[in-house]
Write a structure and sequence with these properties.
Chain lengths: ~280, ~280, ~260
């Protein structure tokens, strides 16, 4: 990895801190060069785009110039429209994730912990989970109209399914021998739950939560495109109707940025959670 | 038909590069193996015995010195050299028969008819006729290792390398497979080189036992085993030779530790640990 | 074993919830406790179903949707497998294409639809491109993971037996990665069906299609048709899932009883 920097450092000083600093710098420069390689393709596409616009290969209505997209993004940001639509979309996500994951955890825990609950509820849930979320929306529109209730309900449904499945699977996959240890030391039911089940299932609980948020993001854009008067999805649908493709591109970019941010922050949280679990339990894997 | 090969190792040296520093793994190995001979190599973790096998099979290049098979230098892998790894390394999506045939995939010497015959013969050789259509998950550890032996032999190689082939098996299966391996060796008459942690196994199977010592890997001593086959593990002569080999171990500083932690026989792993420790 | 014995020994508790819901639905609509324009009685759904199946071109719509679904799925999964294998095998492809791919996959799928429809219209080609894209991501991601997780020990076996590059791909890498590839295809199938219905909802045309029928039912406030359409959407989804599971377990029989 650090072929180039290592001997130099070694020759200069043998101080641990400096050595580590140089190693980090070496790793950093490699990462930077990798990132630069990764930029070749997007920059190439951007160049081709610009080139196509200049030479008028495609009508401007179908392919707006990159600087127009950038301009629109700035305008939208400065006028506060973008922040408005974004905050509407994000608050929908927030509420739905709250409601959906609460239901999902409740359902997941009950079917995982109680044989009776599983026998009564899980088969119906399995059938329910096979229905694409998208399919529910027309019926929900009939019942709830096209107001906020519709969006929250539709997105919540999208969250419930992965959260429930991950919770149920996470708990039922807890190694038997861990539970046997609890049995040997005569743990009470609440002790088993708090000291064995919860910590052991935490990673899968979190990964279900993460999937739930990603599903919510998917459902949000759909429902906003279909029936909404606010939000990022609405913005795109509206722009598409007016043939303002620059705004559509802005929408794609914004949705991408939010998607990446969500994923990065969730995977950061997940890795923190993992390392926390490892230090707490002193597991050396 | 296959003929047994002569293997000539002269002044073999090998280093690994770790973060720009070179670390000797094998130092000045010289060993001459006669056609049809069975040579056992023993040594504690980190003595480079698995690296030696990797060089002979051709999975690793980049060495100094000479490595000659029937007088010509070894370059890359070849179907004339077969190997059995510690883990069976069968392809789980293929049946026993298909797994053995995979060894013949690039064999250009045999006709289709000969290939079919060779596969059948080797299934019988390792006694798995009734399991030809079974998948690896249906086999026990010992059976899987027998399939791996058949796969290695199906090309009729001149030399067969065995990298702790029975290391992961229980004691009963291990003793039985040692007997089986001896029978196969006598029947096929090819050269075999076995790396092992198990001194008894080394003495039971080997015409000679090569004792290696670690850091860097060197040959410490070569001990002849002039006992007739089939050998009796509890005979006084057998035990005497075993003791002699074990004595070599107690002379090397940290060898006893290596013997005790026989279970941790993944040399590769302990090796990388050691490297990071030194670096 | 006699039939009564068989029925007795089955666990029938799963039926309680659906039967209760059905009964409640039936009772409240028959007794007129709810607005039956909104919550239509079960028998009206049944009548709508009979009518839809016998006339109306409803079944043609289902067929058209399935055709779109399958075309998109086949194109998307083929592209996904090829892309995943390439990315998994070549470090350089991964370095150049990987970051872009990993960024684009975070764009919520339906966000592509306005763009696609501007360029390709609202017809079949736009829908199929969208469905392919939806299938592409899970297949490509899982194929890549599968190819990357082929153990080094097995790659060494390939070298010992002098496999050519092509033999290594077809005889080792693809079979070894097949569990993950199949997982990707399974996910792709589920996503493709969602995308089919979603695209039909959003890109309203004069075409026939299951989604089109349902969304037109909404415009006409034909609730029984919506309910029936939803049931069919769910049923097809479940059926596709069932078929995929069967094929998967058949193809992966070599893994034994692992789940």
């Amino acid at each position: 990895m650090n072929d180039a920097t290592r001997p130099v450092v070694h020759g200069l000083v043998n101080s641990g801190i400096l050595q580590r600093l140089f190693l980090t710098l070496g790793g950093f420069s490699i990462r930077v060069s990798h990132a630069a390689v990764g930029l070749i393709l997007p920059l190439g596409v951007l160049g081709l785009w610009q080139f196509a616009v200049i030479h008028e290969w495609i009508a401007v209505q179908l392919l707006p110039p990159p600087e127009l997209v950038w301009q629109s993004l700035q305008d939208l940001w400065e006028s506060g429209d973008l922040t408005h639509h974004l905050s509407v979309s994000l608050s929908r996500i927030g509420w739905s994730v709250l409601i959906g994951s609460s239901i999902g955890w409740l359902l997941g825990f009950s079917v995982a912990l109680s044989k009776t609950a599983r026998a009564y509820l899980y088969p119906s849930f399995e059938v329910f989970s096979q229905f694409p979320v998208v399919g529910w929306i027309p019926l929900l529109i009939i019942f709830l109209g096209i107001d906020e209730g519709l969006k929250i309900a539709a997105i919540s449904i999208a969250v419930v399914v992965p959260v429930t499945v991950a919770t149920y699977k996470g708990i039922s996959n807890i190694p038997r021998n861990l539970l046997e240890v609890a049995q040997v030391y005569r743990f009470t039911r609440s002790q088993v739950l708090l000291r064995v089940v919860l910590p052991a299932a935490l990673p899968s609980l979190f990964s279900g939560f993460r999937q739930g948020i990603m599903q919510a993001w998917l459902a949000l854009v759909f429902v906003e495109l279909l029936a909404s008067s606010e939000g990022v999805g609405y913005l795109m649908g509206y722009a598409r109707l007016l043939m303002q493709l620059d705004l559509v591109f802005v929408g794609v970019i914004v949705i991408g940025v939010i998607g990446v941010t969500l994923d990065l922050s969730l995977s950061f949280l997940e890795s923190r959670l993992q390392s926390w679990l490892h230090t707490v339990h002193g597991e050396a894997k | 038909m296959a003929h047994a090969a002569t293997l000539e190792i002269k002044n073999l040296n090998k280093q690994y590069k770790v973060r720009g520093e070179s670390l000797p793994v094998l130092e000045n190995i010289s060993l001459s193996i006669k056609p049809g001979e069975f040579v056992s190599i023993v040594g504690s973790s980190g003595c480079g015995k698995s690296t030696l096998l990797k060089l002979i099979i051709g999975l690793e290049d980049d060495y100094q010195g000479e490595l000659l098979l029937d007088g010509s230098r070894i370059v890359g892998t070849s179907l004339e050299r077969g190997i059995v790894f510690q883990e069976h390394r069968l392809f789980p999506w293929l049946t026993v028969e298909q797994n053995i045939s995979i060894g013949l995939l690039n064999n250009t010497k045999f006709s289709e008819e000969e290939k079919r015959k060779s596969v059948q013969e080797h299934i019988e050789l390792v006694g798995l006729k009734d399991f030809a259509g079974a998948y690896p998950y249906q086999l026990s550890g010992g059976m899987s290792q027998r399939v791996a032996i058949a796969r290695a032999l199906v090309n009729r190689p001149e030399v067969l390398l065995l990298d702790e082939p029975f290391g992961a098996l229980d004691a009963f299966t291990r003793a039985f497979l040692q007997q089986e391996l001896q029978r196969i060796w006598e029947k096929e008459g090819i050269t075999m080189i076995q790396v092992t942690h198990d001194v008894e196994e080394a003495v039971y199977l080997g015409d000679r036992v090569v004792v290696m010592q670690p850091r860097p890997g060197r040959i410490k001593r070569i001990i002849d085993v002039p006992l007739p086959r089939e050998r009796n593990r509890s005979s006084a002569e057998f035990i005497a030779i075993k003791e002699e080999v074990l004595r070599e171990f107690s002379h090397t500083a940290d060898a006893s530790a290596g013997l005790i932690e026989k279970a941790a026989s993944n040399e590769e792993y302990s090796h990388s640990n050691e490297l990071s420790y030194q670096a | 074993m006699n039939l009564i014995h068989l029925i007795r020994n089955r666990d029938w508790r799963w039926a309680v919830l659906p039967l209760t819901l059905l009964t409640v639905w039936y009772v409240v609509t028959t007794l007129g406790w709810v607005n039956t324009k909104l919550i239509v009685p079960p028998e009206k759904v049944y009548q709508a179903a009979v009518k839809a199946i016998s006339r109306d071109g409803f079944m043609e719509g289902v067929e058209a949707s399935l055709m779109r679904d399958m075309s998109g799925f086949v194109i998307g999964s083929f592209a996904g497998i090829v892309f995943g294998v390439l990315l998994g095998l070549s470090r350089w492809t991964e370095r150049i294409v990987g970051p872009t791919f990993n960024t684009l996959k975070h764009i919520s799928l339906f966000a592509w639809l306005p763009l696609i429809s501007t360029w390709l219209g609202t017809g079949d080609s736009a829908k199929i491109v969208f469905i392919s894209l939806t299938t592409f991501y899970p297949v490509a991601i899982n194929t890549f993971d599968g190819v990357r997780s082929v153990p080094r020990t097995q790659l060494e076996v390939a070298r010992v037996y002098a496999f050519t590059r092509w033999q290594s791909i077809t005889r080792l890498i693809v079979p070894a990665a097949s569990p993950q590839i199949l997982t990707g295809l399974h996910l792709g199938l589920i996503y493709a069906w969602m995308a089919t219905i979603g695209a039909e909802f959003l890109l309203v045309t004069a075409d026939t299609g299951l989604g089109d029928a349902v969304i037109k039912g909404r415009a006409a406030f034909n609730v029984e048709l919506i309910v029936f359409g939803m049931l069919i959407i769910g049923l097809v989804g479940a059926l596709l899932n069932f078929i995929a599971t069967r094929i998967e377990s058949h193809l992966l029989a070599w893994r034994g009883d692992r789940t």
